[in-house]
Amino acid sequence: MATFQRHRLTPWILLAPQLAVIAVFFFWPAAQAIVQAFYIEDPFGLGHEFVWFENFARIFTSFEYLRALGVTALFSVSVAVGAMSLALLLAVQADRVIHGAHSYKTLLIWPYAVAPAVAGVLWMFMFDPNLGLLSAGLENLGIGWNHRVNGGQAMLLVILASIWKQMSYNFVFFLAGLQSIPKSLLEAAAIDGAGPWRRFWTVTFPLLSPTSFFLLVMNSVYVFFETFGTIDATTGGGPGGATRTLVYKVYEDGFEGYDLGSSAAQSVILLILVGLLTLLQFRYIERKVQY
């Protein structure tokens, strides 16, 4: 009996370090944010006042917050669609390569090892209005580039940087999914007269639907949370709030504006939005996944 109980507790013992890390760095800060969302606090911890839902009311009547919500929607859709589409295209091409395949795959995976802030700095320098190689090329084509004053160009810059950073992650999974598809199915479709384009949409892509669904969920989480470093290093939310996403506004209000109650309330709303988005994806999109 003692031996049975020891083995039954073994998984929990092995999981204990990871559970402790999650509790300390996720659940405890999340609980603190929920509590702080109902208070107006002094930034130096000298006092606080319980205000019920006043912080949430101020958020939903704030033009800047609603603007940040719209910026986040545009940014998230653009990055998720762009990163997944480009990764799928590259994975299809890499899967066909015979000579030097490992070299191509390694080069395409490398960007994922770059930190988001570093990725932002790289793209900022490439598009620097005075020193950037890409901005100079655009100038030669008659296209003026200055993302420091042009909000549309700033948004395009952070979208490109975020897509480049996340593309490698998607590429790994799409390539693994492509290599797991039985070649006999594609050969049978070819014998039936299906061309490359038709084989892709009727055979390959449906079999990639589980991978695509997984990446859709992961890219949604990435866009909402992990792009903060890229935006901060590239545009700092500017110009004029053109690239200020919800997660960046949480940072601005909390660490620059010292409005801890509003910042906590925004983080709670952001967590709820991501949870609802993930729930909707599992509720409606997963139905079309073919396992």
Automatic annotation (TrEMBL):
Family of this protein: Belongs to the binding-protein-dependent transport system permease family. UgpAE subfamily.
Mode of membrane association: Multi-pass membrane protein
InterPro entries, A to Z: MetI-like (IPR000515), MetI-like_sf (IPR035906), UgpAE/MalFG_permease (IPR050809)
Gene Ontology CC annotation, any one: plasma membrane
Cell compartments where the protein resides: Cell inner membrane; Cell membrane
Keyword terms: Cell inner membrane, Cell membrane, Membrane, Transmembrane, Transmembrane helix, Transport
Pfam families the UniProt entry points to: BPD_transp_1 (PF00528)
Transmembrane segments: 12-31, 68-92, 104-126, 154-178, 199-225, 264-285
Alphabetized CDD domains for the sequence: TM_PBP2
Major localisation: membrane
Official protein name in the record: sn-glycerol-3-phosphate transport system permease protein UgpA
